[in-house]
Amino acid sequence: MEERNKRNDLNVAGISQTAGGNFHRVSIDGMAKVNGNLDCTSMEVNGTLKMHGALTSESAAINGMCTLNGPLTSSRVRVDGMTTINGNLHSPELEVNGKCTVRGRVDGERIDIGGVIDIEGDVQCETLNVQGNIKISGFLNAGTVEIRLHTSSSAKEIGGERIDIRRKEQQNGFWKSIGLGGTPSFKTSLIEGDEIVLEDTEADIVRGSNIHIGRGCNIRLVEYSGELEVDQDAKVGSSQRI
Amino acid sequence: MTDDLISKKELLDLTGISYGQLYRWKRKNLIPEEWFIRKSSYTGQETFFPKQQILLRIDKILNMKDGLSLDELADVFSPTLGEVEMSEQQLLERNIVSQISLDLLKEAGREQPLYALEQIMMLYVLDELLMSGDITRQEGALLIDVMSEHYYRFTGRPSELVLIRKMGVPSFMLVTAGTEFYFDNGVKVVLRQPMGTFMEELKLKLG
User: Fold this and answer.
1) CA distance B108 to A53
2) Which of A169, A172, A224, B2 would you call most buried, defined as having the most Cβ atoms within 10 angstroms of its Cβ?
3) Are B23 and A161 inside 8 Å of each other by CB?
């Protein structure tokens, strides 16, 4: 790859349409449409961007509206606005404080969700930290999963080492005031992990070593090899030591 | 071969590894995605694995884990080709292939001063199959043809080597891993082996 410093910057301040290409810094303050692939060092969107093609960038910050029709590959992605990615998202660090929709799979190391994320494919990462709303239609495979429930979230299946899903102690004013997203709950068909702590979770099967089933859970079958604790306010169909 | 599956629960029981380890290895690409086979059973959806491949793989991971990091292990198992070049002399000295395979390669007119990993791989497969008695010398020549013409197409993707015979006439195929295929009654599948296993063995030998 050519030296990135020798590349030009791309600045859009009004309304513009470009074909894409290789750039150093890309900054979109107005409305832009990119008809092709974009490769850049940093990407900042404060206005509206619509892209048809793949985006490769060392860092990407999206504060406005962004629609990508193609995959996004980056070492750092931060979404504070609204973003729709019609493709896969690959980024070691992903932070979402706005709303993000991914119609593909997500691969990362650290994922922090403070807003809303909706993923159609599988998710693979080392740590997933959610303080907002998450919906995964595929399989979630993560080393550590920590979810604090504000609204109703879901995943098809979860597998990992430490899985910790609990309700938020004090209901945050923001989520309560907008009254969206439903009551705090988590829905999934299967959870498998070494250390599992659950609250307000509805699941078909939970398997693991040390399992704590807290208040508000409704689980059909629990299989454990170490210790199992079940709260009085939890419903467990049957449990089995394996 | 595809019928020989093991369920996830049996696998963990048998090997003594935890869910966490299994998923971590999957994340590190030590266990390929296509080995996780979803099937419905009486308890709902269950995950199964190709029994022989997964047991062999877990055994290797557990035995090599102490010496290598997970990322180094992932390199060993990944199907991509590294940068290696070796002469005929080196290959013989390091006991990677035998003279017979090299002679066969010369007969096929594909002799080279230096062999890249892709070609060493071909020689290694040839050698293994010849030595185990699975194929004849004549079939070896066919193998050289199919591998040198088409193996590059599978760079970075898992593939399988298939040998069929019909009325004694042999034919080799390279296919995408996990592909289903059906033949008429006269055809016998003599051999079906994932290329990945050869590559792992070879990389360990080279490493």
Assistant:
1) 45
2) A224
3) yes
Give the residue among B61, B109, B113 at the shortest CA–CA distance from B85.
Answer: B113
Over the stretch B49-82, which tens digit does the pLDDT of each residue have? Answer: 988 888 888 888 888 777 777 777 777 776 655 5
A109 touches chain B (CB under 8 A): no
Task: Report which secondary-structure segment, H or E, holds A240.
Answer: strand A235-241
Give me B34's structure tokens. 């296509």
Distance from CA of A113 to the nearest CA of B (A): 20
* pTM, 2 dp: 0.72
Q: CB-based contacts of B40: which residues, under 8 Å, 6+ apart? A: B46
Instruction: Identify the burial level of B174 via C-beta atoms within 10 angstroms of its C-beta, where 0-12 means exposed, 13-18 middle and 19 or more buried.
Output: middle
Residue with tokens 């390279």: B174
The 10s digit of each residue's pLDDT in A48-82 is 999 999 999 999 999 989 999 999 999 999 999 89
Closest alpha carbon within chain A to B27 = A124
Residues of B in contact with A194 (CB under 8 A): 18-20
